[in-house]
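Researcher: I'm preparing a figure for a lab meeting and need a structural model of a single chain. I don't have an experimental structure, so a prediction will have to do for now. The sequence is pasted below. Please return the structure as C-alpha cells so I can convert it later.
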Amino acid sequence: MSNIYNLFISHSWIYGDAYEKLIMLLDNRPYFFYNNYSIPKNDPVHTNGTDRELYDAIKNKISPSSVVLIMAGVYSSYSKWINKEIKIAKVEFSKPKKIIGIEPWWSEKTSTLVKANADLIVRWNTESIVSAIRELS
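Model: Understood. Here is the structure written out cell by cell.
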C-alpha cells in the first residue's frame, strides 16, 4: 500500500494553467497518491469573502497538509496571498509545514521570497516534485 500525501498547492488563478498542469503531472504519476487541499476556483470565498475569511479558509486547507507546494516564478514575489500562505505554513501550527518551491518550466528567475522560505526548491519535473514530497512528508 502506497502512502497518500496531503498537499496544499498554492496558486494564483491568474496563472491557473500552471496549477492545472501541475495537477495533471501529479495525477499521471504512477504509484503516487495524494489529497489536494487547495482552495478550488469555484469556492465563493475567492470572490465574495473578506481577506480574513480567505485567510481562515487557507489556514483550514493547510492544516491537514503535510507539504505546501508553491510555484516559485518571479510573479510569486508580487502576490500578497503567497506571503500569507507562507506565514500560515510557517507560524500558524505547532509544527511548521514544509514548503516546496517549484521553479516553473518557463521561468528564468526564481522568486527570492519563495527561495528564502522553501525547505526545498525543485525544477519542473515530475520525479523531482514527487521525490521532494516524499522526502518532506
